[in-house]
Design the sequence.
């Protein structure tokens, strides 16, 4: 399963580098992947924190499916920036 994530991230970085007409080196690939992963890490953690907070304030139990449902709802309610700010307050 991890290889699917790896392929997606690598593809995104390579497309960015080609668009910018930059040479694809190991170091540049690593730097870009680190930056992309850090950005996505913050977003994923924000979704998880806000979703869990919502579940804890409801009558629902914490399950993977309930977290998924909360995240889908949050996606429609907040911009990424709003979600990250809300998560920082928790």
Sequence:
């Amino acid at each position: 399963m991890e290889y699917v994530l790896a392929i997606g991230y690598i593809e995104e970085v390579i497309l960015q580098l080609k668009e910018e007409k930059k040479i694809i080196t190991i170091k540049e690939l690593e730097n870009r992947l680190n930056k992309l992963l850090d950005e996505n890490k913050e977003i994923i953690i924000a979704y998880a924190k806000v979703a869990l907070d919502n579940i804890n304030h409801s009558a629902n139990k914490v399950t993977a499916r309930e977290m998924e449902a909360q995240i889908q709802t949050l996606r429609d309610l907040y911009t990424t920036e709003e979600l990250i700010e809300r998560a920082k307050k928790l």
Notes: The first helix runs from residue 2 to 19. The chain has a mean pLDDT of 95.
